[in-house]
Amino acid sequence: GLKIYTTMDKDLQDYSQDIINNTSKYINIQEYTIKSGDIDVVQPQVGAAIMDYRSGEVKTIIGGRGDLPPTSYNRGASLGFLKPTGSAIKPLTVYAPAIDMKLANASSLINDTPLTDEEFKRFGFSNGDVVKNVDGQFRGPITLRTALTYSVNIAALKLEDNIGKSNGVEYGKKFGLIFNKRSQESLSAISLGEFDNDPKDKDGSNPLYMAAAYGTFGNNGIYTEPILYTKVTDRTGKVILERTPDKRKVISPEASYILYDMLKGPVINYSGRNAKFSDMPVAGKTGTSEGNKNLWFAGLTPYYSAAVWIGSDTPKEIKTIGNGETASGNTAGILWRKLMEKVHEGLEVKDINIPEGLKMSKVCLDSGKLATDLCSKDPRGNHRIIEDYFIEGTIPNSLCDAHVEVKINRLNGKRATENTPKDLIETRVFISKAYAGSVTDAYMVE
């Protein structure tokens, strides 16, 4: 006579399982099977989870696709099925700590330049290791917002080093990530999600944990533990068990909103574009582990958070059919969108409220400092001035020194000298070489 009141949305669960079972209809990955007893289990596999990050109620968990043996792991939620997160870890262990600790803000600069020999060794790399950004570029000084949008690995490593590995691990644990001993000492694991993931000492995350972690950014910095039922009653209707989620503060409401706003960048401008649906605000991040063995998309809307993982039960490179690029946004991002479209049907388009403790200020994109009139005269246009959010007390107190006025000879474009005729002298705005990186030589000045 017991009645268990589950948090599951049955229609959404059935719909989601159908989407995941038919993954090949939506994304272009090479499939194969591995034998498990008498069952041919399709690979790569998929795990997913959707939850209401305020109430903690889990609406959907997808543990796999296709025919699965009874003893199969639940790839969506099992503690025994943890995987490296790739760059989906960056908001949790790099950018959130830096902003919450007030060591940086969204418009602070980090230098995206090749590692020095000293950094290479100090960061724990050894001969033969290749440390680079996914696109192979180095952008020079860039804001944290830009670094997160374009998932710049070098910037994440340097920023993690600045805030300290122990702080990154501490925040990561508060967000629900699991680190084994080796990963806690690895800058690559903490900042880039390259977890050790020893088969005998698993660490990393799963879709349910990642959905809960990202939900923190929509919930004023409060992590809500996922729950699967609300109550249990006996045959008389008496409540004999009641379930309310544990909650804990991870970051401040102000830092939480800044991260939410920053995470809109990958969805609008970069690898997360395929996760966007309707006019609903979407914030999220892709993640790809070394060798394309794990593909992720984790994110949230003003209503729900969700995460999708794609990978093989026995870690193996995920390949596309034909010559297409294997990217998390083109795979996990698409499946994430398909699932979230359904759960948001009929919901009002709205955004998360901005906390009262946030201030806005105009800063220069090239220096991260307060914008001046010279910033608006940048040869590339006045879009070098941005208006960004700041936690009270963290607004820069110095003026931009990246933009400088220089008298030049308008005929040859070189600095004017005492011998330059006055009618050939022209004043132009250039970028100081100290801030070079995103500009061409024509815009720089010594």
In short:
This protein is 23% helix and 22% strand.
Task: Please tag this protein with its features.
19 strands; single chain; three-stranded antiparallel beta sheet; 446 residues; alpha+beta; five-stranded antiparallel beta sheet
Number of helical elements: 12
Low-confidence sequence ranges: none
How would you write the strand order of the largest sheet? Answer: 5-4-14-13-12
Q: Strand pairing plus helix content: what structural class? A: alpha+beta
Mean pLDDT: 93
Instruction: Give the strand tally.
Output: 19
CA-based gyration radius = 24 Å
Q: In which range does the helix fraction lie?
A: 10-25%
What does this structure look like?
The chain has 446 residues and is of the alpha+beta class. Helices cover 23% and strands 22% of the residues. It has twelve helices and 19 strands. The protein has helices spanning 10-21, 90-100, 117-122, 144-149, 153-163, 165-174, 181-184, 187-192, 207-215, 253-262, 264-269, 332-343; strands at 3-6, 32-36, 39-43, 45-51, 58-62, 109-112, 140-143, 222-224, 229-233, 239-242, 247-249, 283-288, 294-300, 305-311, 358-364, 385-391, 403-409, 425-432, 444-445. The strands form seven sheets. It has a five-stranded antiparallel β-sheet with strand order 5-4-14-13-12, with helices on both faces. Strands 1-9-10 form a three-stranded antiparallel β-sheet, with no helix packed on it. It has a three-stranded mixed β-sheet with strand order 17-18-19, with no helix packed on it. The radius of gyration is 24 Å and the shape is globular. The N and C termini lie far apart (81 Å). The model has no long low-confidence stretch (mean pLDDT 93).
